[in-house]
Amino acid sequence: EGTNLEVSWEEKRTFGEGSVIYGIVADNERTLIEGIQKEINKSHIFSEYIFSDEAKFSFTVSGRASGHSDFGGSSTGRINASYKLDNGTILRSSLGSGYRAPSLYELFAPFYGNSSLQPETSVATDLGVEIPLVGDKGALSATAFETTISDRIVYDNNTFAYGQSTESEKRAGYEIGFNYKVNPRSDVNLSFTHTNDGSGNRVQKVPESDFTLSARTELSSGVNISGSLQSVMGLDDFVPLPDYTIVSLRGSYPLTENVNVYLRAENIFDTKYQTTSDYGTSGQAFYSGFTAKF
Q1: Which DSSP string corresponds to 142-199?
Q2: Residue among 29, 169, 32 nearest 98 (CA)
Q3: Rounded to a whole number, what is the distance in angstroms from the first to the last CA of the chain?
Q4: Chain centroid, CA 126 distance in Å
Q5: I need a labelling partner for 152 at 20 to 30 A (CA). Which of 33, 219, 251, 270 fits?
Q6: Which H or E run contains 23?
Q7: What's the rounded Cα separation, in Å, for the pair 193 and 177?
Q8: How remote is the C-alpha of 100 from its chain's centroid?
Q9: Looking at residues 211-220, what average pLDDT do you find?
């Protein structure tokens, strides 16, 4: 039982040949654990500068300074850059840092919590290329990535509680994607991601291979239909978990210019699978509702 209240303000302005986005966020999280209220207050100041010459070169620089009621101040940053060659090929790269404080559950949960936990930090980088195909109707992309995590918060199977990794851990791999625009109203996307620990070994709770096929189309009546197939292989959580494939569908219809109704079906073949050892996941499920813009 708990509450989470967030208040934010953001503004965007032209700055030189680019634009700058900046703002503040304040967050209060409360939860009741064994009859005792636990609370965390967080505040953030962020800014992002976006530049593009609208032809070949673009880059983004962002930074965030944060304050935490239990862990004090921290800062993170990220830079992204891309360059378009004369033949339409795009080269991309990014470098960024991350910071994650322990959650209230990780700190104070009965039996599992550990109030001695400290924040985990990370550094991530990637390098990629996107090549236009089929007369610019399609594109093939490939990206290599690597993330190094320090002080990662983990569940310790020996103590049956959350603990902290004493060594830096890596996540490395590659992603290959292909998207094709069948017509102005329809497109198809494929992606494949391979991830390991930088030495060829599997990473706990991260699929070794993840393949996704998705498609979308808009009918003349305004109905939008989309679907996806995800196949996950090589997932471990202390023990190897079975591979699985999930198929989902979604449809929406505009009642008015600002109101849409939708129907979503997830895991339509009722696949039994696990992403965490000994914990079940949702079976076949259907959702319906509406969205409105004001």
Answers
A1: EEEEEEEEES-EEEETTTTEEEE-SS-EEEEEEEEEEEEEEETTEEEEEEEEEEE-SS
A2: 169
A3: 31
A4: 15
A5: 33
A6: strand 18-33
A7: 9
A8: 14
A9: 95
The residues pairing with 10 across neighbouring beta strands, listed in sequence order, are: 23
Q: Are strands 161-164 and 186-196 parallel, antiparallel or unpaired?
A: unpaired
pLDDT digit string (tens) for 11-31?
A: 999 988 899 999 999 999 999
Gap between the Cα atoms of 215 and 178, Å rounded: 12
Burial of residue 221 (number of CB atoms within 10 Å: 0-12, 13-18, 19+) = exposed
Token output for 291: 């969205």
**Local structure of residue 55 (DSSP, 8 states):** S
What CA–CA distances, in Å, run from 170 to 138, 173, 208, 237? 33, 10, 14, 17
**DSSP structure class, residue 101:** P
What's the pLDDT tens digit per position in 105-158? 999 988 889 999 999 999 999 999 999 998 889 999 999 999 999 999 998 888
Residue 67: Cβ-neighbour burial (10 angstroms; 0-12, 13-18, 19+): middle
CA distances from 60 to 22, 49, 277, 291 (A): 13, 6, 39, 32
> Which pTM value belongs to this model?
0.85
In angstroms, the CA 30 to CA 222 distance is: 43
Question: If you search the block for the tokens 């990014």, which residue do you land on?
Answer: 94
Comparing CA positions, the residue from 245, 217, 242 lying closest to residue 229 is 245
Measured distance CA(12)–CA(190) in Å, rounded: 34
- The span from the CA of 289 to the CA of 285, in Å, is 14
